[in-house]
Amino acid sequence: MAMTFEEAEALLTPAQRDALARCALEDAPLPSPLSEAQRVFCFGLSVLCEYEQRDEIFRYLL
């Protein structure tokens, strides 16, 4: 069964979400390796960036 963005978000710590959100906002390289939850979360962040909803990403910053 595929993991949803919300499920991935729930599995990550605030610090993990913050680090990945900063990578998305700054177009920085992602850490490696990524867990499945981190990959799904990053994909969701990339969709937000693609559709110019970067403001939504700021809620994940500490």
Task: List the defining traits of the structure above.
4 helices, mainly alpha, 0% strand, 62 residues
Written overview of the protein:
This protein has helices spanning 5-11, 14-26, 36-50, 54-57. It has 62 residues and is mostly helical. It has one domain. The chain is globular. The relative contact order is 0.22. The model has no long low-confidence stretch (mean pLDDT 95).
Q: Provide the succession of SSEs.
A: HHHH
What helical percentage do the residues reach?
A: 55-70%
- Catalogue the unreliable spans: none
Task: Please report the distance between the alpha carbons of the first and last residues.
Answer: 31 Å
Radius of gyration over all CA atoms, rounded: 11 Å
**What characteristic shape results from the CA principal axes?**
globular
Q: Kindly estimate the percentage of residues that lie in beta strands according to DSSP.
A: under 5%
Number of helices: 4
- Domain unit count: 1
* Mean residue pLDDT: 95
